[in-house]
Amino acid sequence: MQEYSLLLLLFIYRNNKEQYLLNLTRDNTQLLINGIWALPTERVDECIVAKLPEPTTVLPRLRKPPGPKPLTKWEKFAKEKGIKKKKRDKKKYDEVLDKWVPTYGFKRADAEKEKEWVLEVPKNADPNEDMFQKKIDLRNEKVAKNEIQRMKNIVRAKKVEVPRGGYFGPEVASSGQLLTAVTVAKSSTASVGKFQSKLPKEKEARGIGVKELIPGAKRKASHISEQPEKEVNLDLIKSVLNKKPKYDIEKAISLQKNENKLE
Length: 263
Prior knowledge:
Elements: H1 2-15, H2 17-37, E1 41-44, E2 47-50, H3 73-81, E3 91-94, E4 99-102, H4 106-115, H5 131-158, H6 175-187, H7 229-241, H8 249-262
Antiparallel strand pairs: 1-2, 3-4
InterPro entries: Ribosom_reg
Family: Belongs to the RRS1 family.
Keywords: Nucleus, Ribosome biogenesis
């Protein structure tokens, strides 16, 4: 059906171009007017004015837009099992303190200190052990465990293959990692590797972050400075444009003497 419509339009265009263009202009104008009347309107000085949509500017991107945030281990498990996060109340009633205390936040810690001003020592525990310090140690251990889990989630999201022991030893290192290690080791001498012997067809490690590992290597200046970026760029342009050529006086004199001798 669509092909038939296109053939019909082509036939009309070939037979009567003026009528075809007139009909096309009329239809497009009607569509434009219909679109304007579909916009919200308001009255200004006894005139009906249409509110045009906000203008948008499409800018090209250097990199592709970021994708969805990868799920953590717990979020993936909860999604598979259909577990939904329950919203906690901001405050709850504490029967010991006989008042409403925050469920989370720094004020909750103050409420816990106020409530637990004394701790019971279990029967099997060491009587000389500080129960308050033990509670602090358990909390710090829990924080460290959460931090380890957070790092594991980052490694899992970046799809980095980490050995079960967590150490990149020589038996699991890639050729690029071994080449970087050799380059850094040879450069870590008093002569910065200038007098180190090289094997035939030996290559040096190249890539992002290799120079930063080599001691004494020249590093690029950081883009972050106290001066704004505009001032830094202007200073660079001025230094290039105002650069004067260097004159070798002795060489110029010798050339002049040679020309005089030839004459």
